[in-house]
Amino acid sequence: MFVFIFTTIVVGFACAGFIMLGFRLTGRKAPKYLIPLTAALGMFGYMIWDDYSWFDRVSSRLPPQVEITQTYVTTAPYKPWTLLVAPVNRFSAIDGDKTITNPANAAQKQITTIYLQKSHLTLATTRLIDCDTRLASFITPDTALDGNGFPTQIDDAKPLESNDPAMVYACE
């Protein structure tokens, strides 16, 4: 967040500086309203560009084994441009390198889901997906694991829809 605010301010100063330099080189005096207006337009332009390009910039840097499963958009009244076309500001992805099949039960898979949101910390969760029963359970540090690293007992399993991205990824 600090980098975003700092960059926005720098862009505003840079835009104002270009206008001031242009008028100074031509020997004319800039109208009083033009410098702050140019700085404000530059800052708003940067904020809009950052909102709409965030998803493409972040997703292009993901390794090839990470597959994006869902994207989410949000509008905000303090960002009126999002009311016209809402930008993608968060998404979830599954890390294919961390998907493990239970050797004792091939229908059980451990998947790692990564949650990314603009201006927030990245989160990762590990879940056990049972393809036969269509149940899913989060694996926490308190979960008792067997010798293969799979839970010995699933207490908090929740049913998944057949079109749930985690279910589709793990069971296809």
TrEMBL record:
Species: Thalassospira mesophila
User: What phylogenetic lineage does the species belong to?
Assistant: Bacteria, Pseudomonadati, Pseudomonadota, Alphaproteobacteria, Rhodospirillales
Q: Which UniProt keywords apply?
A: Membrane, Transmembrane, Transmembrane helix
Positions of transmembrane segments: 6-26, 33-49
- Identify this protein by name: Uncharacterized protein
Superkingdom of this protein's organism: Bacteria
